[in-house]
Amino acid sequence: MTPIRERPPLLTMSHIEKTFAGEVVALKDMNLTVNDGDFMSLLGPSGCGKSTALRLISGLMHPTRGKIEWAGGQGSDDLGVVFQEPTLMPWATVAQNVWLPFRLRGTPYSAVKDEILEALKLVGLEKFQTSYPRELSGGMKMRVSIARAMVTKPRLILMDEPFAALDEITRFKLNNDLLELKAAIGCTVIFVTHSVFESVFLSDRIVVMAARPGRVIHELEVDTPYPRSEDFRTSSEYAAHTRAASEALGEAIELAA
Fold first, then answer.
1. If 0-12 CB within 10 Å is exposed, 13-18 middle and 19+ buried, where does residue 97 land?
2. Mean pLDDT in each 10-residue stretch from start to end of the chain (257 residues)?
3. Domains and CATH numbers, the chain
């Protein structure tokens, strides 16, 4: 994998401000460069603008001030999004839910059925392609959501606390699977989390944000190479990185107090 400092930029956020009705300043003077191939976690207390930053990058909303520039003028049309809730269509099968990004482009199911099956195999759900969401566990629903985000092999995937509502065992398993999936399709990931432990295990870059107003206050690198095994979770290296991230998060909480 290309070292962090040698990766070309994918997008740059310059002096971003986002103000909502009632003069609530969600982000102010946020500056951030996302490189091609990064696994970046946005870590910070509630209300620091992590999810707002993700929505701005996705194009679901626009900044009040500042600009977001994409390498090559690509724009936000080559990305997948995974929300905290799986947001599956209950009347559609697993395969039909994964088909949705293609369907929105006007591509018939028959033309992309192989891609859909490949995505389901990557998340271990190929045997459930004709099942409905009501027949799946919470972890399985999230796998479907991840398969849907990855099926078009986007350059960038945005993930907004996708594992927050899951039990710890399922969460650990999906953390492991997510790193394998990223390696399989070679994408960039921006991952919003409140968990120091999750951010260290998954990321090679951790961006720590403070609230009121939301902005970046620290950036940490986790230089442990991928793939990362369970041994990493119990290593002294992991403990050192989690301690550094915890201290940075503590500072962010104090700034917001």
1. buried
2. 83 95 88 95 92 93 93 75 91 97 94 95 94 95 95 93 89 92 93 95 96 93 93 96 96 83
3. 34-63+72-78+156-257 (3.40.50.300), 87-153 (no CATH)
